[in-house]
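Field reference: sequence -> structure
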Amino acid sequence: MPVELRLIPCLADNYAVLLRDPATEATAVVDAPEVAPILAALERENWDLTHILVTHHHTDHTAGIEALKARFGATVIGPGAERDSIPGLDFTLVDGDPVAVGGLVGRAMETPGHTKGHIVFLFEDERLLFSGDTLFVMGCGRPFECDPPVLWESLLRLRALPDDIKVYCGHEYTLSNARFAASVDPDNAALAARLKEVEELRAAGKPTLPTTIGAEKATNPFMKADDPELAARIGLPGADPGAVFTELRNLKNSFRG
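Structure field:
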Protein backbone atom coordinates (compact mmCIF):
# COMPACT_ATOMS: atom_id res chain seq x y z
CA MET A 1 0.00 0.00 0.00
CA PRO A 2 1.23 3.54 -0.67
CA VAL A 3 2.02 5.94 2.14
CA GLU A 4 -0.87 8.19 3.21
CA LEU A 5 -0.27 11.91 3.83
CA ARG A 6 -2.39 14.74 5.18
CA LEU A 7 -1.19 18.35 5.15
CA ILE A 8 -2.49 20.32 8.13
CA PRO A 9 -2.42 24.13 8.27
CA CYS A 10 -1.68 25.36 11.80
CA LEU A 11 -1.35 28.75 13.48
CA ALA A 12 -1.00 31.64 11.01
CA ASP A 13 1.25 30.01 8.43
CA ASN A 14 2.66 26.74 9.82
CA TYR A 15 2.15 23.24 8.48
CA ALA A 16 2.13 19.87 10.17
CA VAL A 17 1.99 16.68 8.12
CA LEU A 18 0.45 13.34 9.02
CA LEU A 19 2.42 10.38 7.65
CA ARG A 20 0.70 6.98 7.84
CA ASP A 21 1.70 3.44 6.99
CA PRO A 22 -1.58 1.76 5.98
CA ALA A 23 -0.14 -1.72 6.47
CA THR A 24 0.54 -1.25 10.18
CA GLU A 25 -1.68 1.80 10.83
CA ALA A 26 1.31 3.56 12.41
CA THR A 27 0.78 7.31 12.08
CA ALA A 28 3.25 10.12 12.68
CA VAL A 29 2.87 13.87 12.73
CA VAL A 30 5.87 15.85 11.56
CA ASP A 31 6.08 18.79 13.95
CA ALA A 32 3.25 19.80 16.25
CA PRO A 33 2.61 23.54 16.05
CA GLU A 34 -0.95 23.41 17.40
CA VAL A 35 -3.11 20.70 18.93
CA ALA A 36 -6.61 21.46 17.61
CA PRO A 37 -6.07 21.15 13.84
CA ILE A 38 -3.91 18.04 14.23
CA LEU A 39 -6.47 16.44 16.49
CA ALA A 40 -9.27 17.37 14.07
CA ALA A 41 -7.41 15.74 11.18
CA LEU A 42 -6.80 12.56 13.17
CA GLU A 43 -10.43 12.36 14.23
CA ARG A 44 -11.64 13.02 10.69
CA GLU A 45 -9.54 10.10 9.40
CA ASN A 46 -10.13 7.94 12.48
CA TRP A 47 -6.39 7.53 12.92
CA ASP A 48 -4.45 7.06 16.17
CA LEU A 49 -1.22 9.00 16.53
CA THR A 50 1.75 6.74 17.24
CA HIS A 51 4.74 9.03 16.60
CA ILE A 52 5.65 12.71 16.76
CA LEU A 53 8.67 13.62 14.63
CA VAL A 54 10.26 16.95 15.53
CA THR A 55 12.59 18.93 13.29
CA HIS A 56 13.72 21.61 15.76
CA HIS A 57 12.96 23.27 19.05
CA HIS A 58 11.09 26.44 18.06
CA THR A 59 7.76 26.74 19.84
CA ASP A 60 5.76 27.01 16.63
CA HIS A 61 6.88 23.44 15.91
CA THR A 62 6.66 21.97 19.40
CA ALA A 63 3.74 23.62 21.24
CA GLY A 64 1.40 20.70 20.68
CA ILE A 65 3.75 17.89 21.63
CA GLU A 66 2.86 17.40 25.27
CA ALA A 67 -0.92 17.45 24.78
CA LEU A 68 -0.77 15.06 21.81
CA LYS A 69 1.58 12.73 23.66
CA ALA A 70 -0.73 12.72 26.68
CA ARG A 71 -3.75 12.00 24.48
CA PHE A 72 -2.29 9.19 22.37
CA GLY A 73 0.84 7.98 24.15
CA ALA A 74 2.77 8.78 20.97
CA THR A 75 6.54 8.33 20.84
CA VAL A 76 8.35 11.65 20.42
CA ILE A 77 11.50 11.63 18.28
CA GLY A 78 13.71 14.62 17.56
CA PRO A 79 17.21 16.04 17.25
CA GLY A 80 19.73 14.94 19.83
CA ALA A 81 21.44 18.32 19.77
CA GLU A 82 18.21 19.97 21.01
CA ARG A 83 17.15 17.38 23.58
CA ASP A 84 17.10 19.93 26.39
CA SER A 85 14.73 22.32 24.63
CA ILE A 86 12.08 19.98 23.17
CA PRO A 87 9.39 18.74 25.57
CA GLY A 88 8.56 15.07 25.88
CA LEU A 89 11.37 13.60 23.78
CA ASP A 90 11.58 9.81 24.03
CA PHE A 91 14.29 9.18 21.45
CA THR A 92 16.90 11.44 19.90
CA LEU A 93 18.57 11.24 16.51
CA VAL A 94 21.88 12.25 15.02
CA ASP A 95 22.83 12.38 11.38
CA GLY A 96 22.04 9.16 9.53
CA ASP A 97 20.02 7.54 12.30
CA PRO A 98 17.03 5.54 11.09
CA VAL A 99 13.49 6.48 12.04
CA ALA A 100 10.61 4.05 11.57
CA VAL A 101 6.88 4.71 11.36
CA GLY A 102 5.53 1.18 11.09
CA GLY A 103 7.01 -0.20 7.88
CA LEU A 104 8.08 3.24 6.66
CA VAL A 105 11.78 3.63 7.40
CA GLY A 106 13.50 6.96 6.90
CA ARG A 107 16.59 8.64 8.28
CA ALA A 108 17.54 11.85 9.96
CA MET A 109 19.76 14.38 8.24
CA GLU A 110 21.38 17.09 10.32
CA THR A 111 20.84 20.46 8.63
CA PRO A 112 22.14 23.12 11.02
CA GLY A 113 21.51 26.76 10.22
CA HIS A 114 18.03 27.84 11.23
CA THR A 115 18.84 26.26 14.58
CA LYS A 116 22.08 24.57 15.56
CA GLY A 117 20.49 21.15 15.93
CA HIS A 118 17.87 21.20 13.15
CA ILE A 119 17.19 17.88 11.46
CA VAL A 120 15.08 16.87 8.48
CA PHE A 121 13.44 13.52 7.83
CA LEU A 122 14.14 11.71 4.55
CA PHE A 123 12.04 8.70 3.52
CA GLU A 124 13.84 7.65 0.37
CA ASP A 125 11.65 4.71 -0.62
CA GLU A 126 8.58 6.93 -0.40
CA ARG A 127 10.42 9.84 -2.14
CA LEU A 128 9.59 12.18 0.73
CA LEU A 129 11.53 14.85 2.60
CA PHE A 130 10.16 16.74 5.60
CA SER A 131 12.39 19.80 5.67
CA GLY A 132 11.09 21.79 8.63
CA ASP A 133 12.46 25.32 8.46
CA THR A 134 15.66 24.48 6.58
CA LEU A 135 14.25 24.51 3.05
CA PHE A 136 11.05 26.28 2.02
CA VAL A 137 9.39 26.49 -1.36
CA MET A 138 11.69 28.94 -3.18
CA GLY A 139 13.19 29.98 0.14
CA CYS A 140 14.98 28.90 3.30
CA GLY A 141 14.82 29.60 7.00
CA ARG A 142 16.57 32.46 8.69
CA PRO A 143 19.91 31.35 10.17
CA PHE A 144 19.09 32.29 13.75
CA GLU A 145 21.66 30.16 15.56
CA CYS A 146 24.44 29.71 12.99
CA ASP A 147 26.31 31.86 10.51
CA PRO A 148 24.58 31.91 7.11
CA PRO A 149 27.25 29.79 5.33
CA VAL A 150 26.40 26.93 7.70
CA LEU A 151 22.84 26.93 6.36
CA TRP A 152 24.19 27.08 2.80
CA GLU A 153 26.15 23.87 3.44
CA SER A 154 22.96 22.24 4.74
CA LEU A 155 21.09 23.28 1.60
CA LEU A 156 23.86 21.77 -0.51
CA ARG A 157 23.20 18.43 1.19
CA LEU A 158 19.54 18.67 0.27
CA ARG A 159 20.33 19.82 -3.27
CA ALA A 160 22.28 16.60 -3.78
CA LEU A 161 19.15 14.49 -3.24
CA PRO A 162 17.28 13.09 -6.27
CA ASP A 163 15.15 15.57 -8.18
CA ASP A 164 11.95 13.57 -7.70
CA ILE A 165 11.98 13.75 -3.90
CA LYS A 166 8.82 15.56 -2.76
CA VAL A 167 9.41 18.19 -0.10
CA TYR A 168 7.05 19.19 2.69
CA CYS A 169 8.25 22.22 4.63
CA GLY A 170 7.10 23.89 7.83
CA HIS A 171 5.56 27.15 6.59
CA GLU A 172 3.44 28.71 3.87
CA TYR A 173 5.87 31.46 2.91
CA THR A 174 5.81 30.65 -0.78
CA LEU A 175 4.24 33.75 -2.31
CA SER A 176 6.68 36.12 -0.63
CA ASN A 177 9.55 33.76 -1.41
CA ALA A 178 8.55 33.54 -5.06
CA ARG A 179 8.33 37.31 -5.44
CA PHE A 180 11.76 37.72 -3.87
CA ALA A 181 13.20 34.99 -6.08
CA ALA A 182 11.85 36.73 -9.18
CA SER A 183 13.46 39.98 -8.04
CA VAL A 184 16.96 38.47 -7.98
CA ASP A 185 16.50 35.98 -10.86
CA PRO A 186 14.24 37.87 -13.27
CA ASP A 187 15.23 36.00 -16.43
CA ASN A 188 14.36 32.56 -15.05
CA ALA A 189 11.41 31.32 -17.13
CA ALA A 190 10.72 28.38 -14.81
CA LEU A 191 10.57 30.76 -11.88
CA ALA A 192 8.21 33.14 -13.68
CA ALA A 193 5.86 30.27 -14.47
CA ARG A 194 6.03 29.06 -10.90
CA LEU A 195 5.26 32.50 -9.51
CA LYS A 196 2.11 32.65 -11.63
CA GLU A 197 1.06 29.21 -10.38
CA VAL A 198 1.69 30.19 -6.76
CA GLU A 199 -0.31 33.40 -7.12
CA GLU A 200 -3.26 31.38 -8.43
CA LEU A 201 -3.02 28.79 -5.66
CA ARG A 202 -2.86 31.36 -2.89
CA ALA A 203 -5.68 33.41 -4.39
CA ALA A 204 -7.77 30.25 -4.18
CA GLY A 205 -6.69 29.63 -0.58
CA LYS A 206 -4.80 26.47 -1.53
CA PRO A 207 -1.40 25.33 -0.19
CA THR A 208 1.70 25.43 -2.36
CA LEU A 209 3.13 22.18 -0.99
CA PRO A 210 4.66 19.84 -1.84
CA THR A 211 7.55 21.02 -3.93
CA THR A 212 10.35 18.81 -5.26
CA ILE A 213 14.12 18.94 -5.03
CA GLY A 214 14.23 19.37 -8.81
CA ALA A 215 11.85 22.33 -8.72
CA GLU A 216 13.87 23.97 -5.97
CA LYS A 217 17.12 23.52 -7.86
CA ALA A 218 15.53 25.31 -10.82
CA THR A 219 13.79 28.17 -9.02
CA ASN A 220 15.09 28.68 -5.48
CA PRO A 221 17.85 31.32 -5.38
CA PHE A 222 19.09 30.01 -2.04
CA MET A 223 19.90 26.72 -3.75
CA LYS A 224 21.88 28.61 -6.42
CA ALA A 225 24.35 30.66 -4.38
CA ASP A 226 27.20 29.08 -6.39
CA ASP A 227 25.73 30.30 -9.70
CA PRO A 228 28.11 32.96 -11.10
CA GLU A 229 25.30 34.76 -12.93
CA LEU A 230 23.24 35.08 -9.76
CA ALA A 231 26.28 36.29 -7.84
CA ALA A 232 26.92 38.98 -10.44
CA ARG A 233 23.27 40.00 -10.47
CA ILE A 234 23.34 40.83 -6.75
CA GLY A 235 26.60 42.73 -7.05
CA LEU A 236 29.04 40.02 -5.94
CA PRO A 237 30.78 38.78 -9.10
CA GLY A 238 33.30 36.06 -8.32
CA ALA A 239 32.37 35.94 -4.64
CA ASP A 240 32.46 32.81 -2.52
CA PRO A 241 29.07 31.03 -2.50
CA GLY A 242 28.86 31.44 1.26
CA ALA A 243 29.12 35.20 0.85
CA VAL A 244 26.55 35.15 -1.96
CA PHE A 245 24.18 33.13 0.20
CA THR A 246 24.68 35.57 3.09
CA GLU A 247 23.82 38.52 0.86
CA LEU A 248 20.75 36.73 -0.54
CA ARG A 249 19.55 36.08 3.00
CA ASN A 250 20.13 39.73 3.95
CA LEU A 251 18.23 40.89 0.88
CA LYS A 252 15.33 38.58 1.67
CA ASN A 253 15.20 39.78 5.29
CA SER A 254 14.56 43.32 4.07
CA PHE A 255 12.37 42.41 1.07
CA ARG A 256 8.84 43.79 1.08
CA GLY A 257 6.97 42.16 -1.73
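Note: The first helix runs from residue 35 to 45.
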